[in-house]
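STRUCTURE REQUEST FORM
Protein name: HD domain-containing protein
Source organism: Octopus vulgaris
Requested output: structure tokens
Priority: standard
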Amino acid sequence: MSYSRSTYWDQVFQDAIHGAMQLPSLCVDIMNTTQFQRLRNIKQLGLVYYVYPSASHNRFEHCLGTCHLAGKMIRHLKQQDPDLPISDRDMLCVEIAALCHNLGHGPFSYTFQKIINQHREENGGEKWENKNATCKMLDHLLEKNPHINEELKSDEIDFIKDIIIGETRNSQKPKFFYQIVNNTGYKIDVNQWDYLARDSHFLGIGKSFDHGRMMKMSKVIDGEICYRDKTVDNFYDMFYSRYRLHKAAYQHKTVLLFNKLLGEAFRSADKHMKIFEKVDDMKKFTYFTDSILEEILKNENNEGLKEAQSKLESMFYRCYKYRGTDKDGNNRDGDQEKIFCEANLDYGAGEENPLEKIPFYKKGEKKSFKYNQEELEDRLLLPNTFHLKIRHCFEKKVNNKNEGSKKKKESDF
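Status: completed
Returned output:
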């Protein structure tokens, strides 16, 4: 088995967030496959794009950025402690995992995951997760591209999948490897750093944290990634940036409405297009992207798709007006169609303070510690609560899209 293609750097990509990114040749080979190129046609922020016109970036460039940061992170950790058991092949596997970590996303990213799981819950099906679909798509990619498959050993493929999942299933490497791309423990990883920086940039919402500084202040202690104590302020800024993005964009009231309408459109169209079955066939899933909207809309003569088309047109023509927040969710006016959407906002750890979960270290010390709430309150201005629920109410404006387009547009969108 030859590894010659993966032993040198061979292509530089210019990125809006990270500048010049130099990626391993095997990663470039993976990028140039049909299975990976599909990510060009999946919006990073789903239907947020229909509210923020500049949020047009895709999963493709996010994966490249995550791969770039993963390479920097693993090399930094090795530099901090040359005795760490990190080989060149380990570094490559981390980069491949970072590059491929979004292969299993469906149309409109996480919106689709919520829609299909609601459908499966109603029909007694098993829960669907994009990270498991990612592993299946990776297998499909390797099967269809033997020139890439022959560059990787079977245990390396298992290692790559476990990094994507964020836990050891079939590989037995030190814990810190599984914290770089998908840190399920305390939600700090290169995936988070890239999407927070990238989304903030394309949404036009500034960020106050510096992931480069956080990376340089990291090292491995007792098998896990820890951070210098003085970066706690930077991490608070990061979690606050996450909360602000959710409130202003990811869970914007109109985005939540559109997500619900899209779900209704998909469930209606599924009876005729078998939309939800596409996730079980990787060949079909390869071409299952945001273009599904055009596939639904272009079949104007298909009576079975009229309801789905009507739901999508309700999005495009903004046929609902905002009625404010509502606690009980009751339809008090029987003659008006109402839709209720709920925003769940937090700092990344539900009702808990995520800063309490991070392992820190002090300068010159080789042991880690965690701040408690009292210590954090002495250092930071913390909110009283880390979790907020908001229930939004929308009401149908008109039934006729043409009539609605002639009326003066409401400003509450």
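Reviewer notes: Strands lie at 9-15, 19-24, 218-221, 224-228, 320-325, 338-346, 360-361, 368-369, 387-396. The chain has 17 helices and nine strands.
Form closed.
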